[in-house]
Amino acid sequence: MGKEAFVTLATNDTYCRSAIVLAQSLRNCCTQKEITILITPQVSPEARAMLDKFFDQIFCVNVLDSKDAANLALLKRPELGITFTKLHCWNLTQYNKCVFMDADTMVLTNIDELFDHQELSAAPDAGWPDMFNSGVFVYEPSYETYMALIQLAEEEGSFDGGDQGLLNTYFNQWRTSDERKRLSFLYNMHSTSTYTYSPAFARFGKDTKVVHFLGQVKPWHHKYSAETDSIQQMDGPGIHEQAFLLQWWRQLTQAMKQFQD
Ligand code: UDP
Ligand code: MN
Q1: Ligand 2 centre from 96 Cα, in Å?
Q2: What is the ipTM of this complex?
Q3: Are residues 225 and 117 in the same domain?
Q4: For residue 260, what pLDDT band results from cuts at 50, 70 and 90?
Q5: Are residues 110 and 218 in the same domain?
Q6: C-beta separation of 95 from 12 below 8 A
Q7: Were 90 and a residue from 120, 146, 179, 203 both cysteine, which residue would form a disulfide, CB within 3.0 to 4.6 Å?
């Protein structure tokens, strides 16, 4: 078995904090895999020092300086900047297999079994279930795949302007592929599903493995009181989503405490 890692991405200090919660949650669930992060030069030295404590490897990527072909393509399509940054995960060829996870995801149980799946395995997107959500996916690093993705981005762009559109165009066999590549929604449970389809959440929610706080409102936009261990901003999230938000804040508090000790 080759080297394997969970991989995330943070282009600024805010997402670094969220990435730390993800790493903490993976460790709390006793992962046996490495935990790796891609960052960009915008991340402050202070945030980087914190990441050092929670991640096995930190890779600083600079889209504009990285690879000539990518650089040229980016100059033609500057709007794809963040998208290109996520694609860098295919360059981590020191690993045989990786699981990419958005920094706004949090693990509730050990999910190391995901490494038994092949590229490209992912769960459906709740907004358009014929597509996969690109917040959690199993992939195999390869410079050739990276270059092919860059080329596709340059030639066709991304129909949604982000990485999800591009990746779904490239891995367009996903919907009709082997069922092992179509991961259960429990591996990428959109936190909003707790109230958009609350009966399903009541029935299946207890088996959730990964919560994804996707959308504009992120856990850090809510106020948390460590004194009373409660989320203060009650409007908006439903009661179940609040339980996940609490768990997110508790793990952030735990991580910060560990960092200070
Ligand atoms: N991201 C980042 N900086 C940004 C925006 C996004 O590092 O300014 C990374 C981060 O890992 C994040 C992922 O890209 O989780 C995808 O963005 P986001 O989760 O905000 O999108 P959503 O899941 O809500 O569509
Ligand atoms: Mn996300």
Answers
A1: 24
A2: 0.99
A3: no
A4: confident
A5: no
A6: no
A7: 146
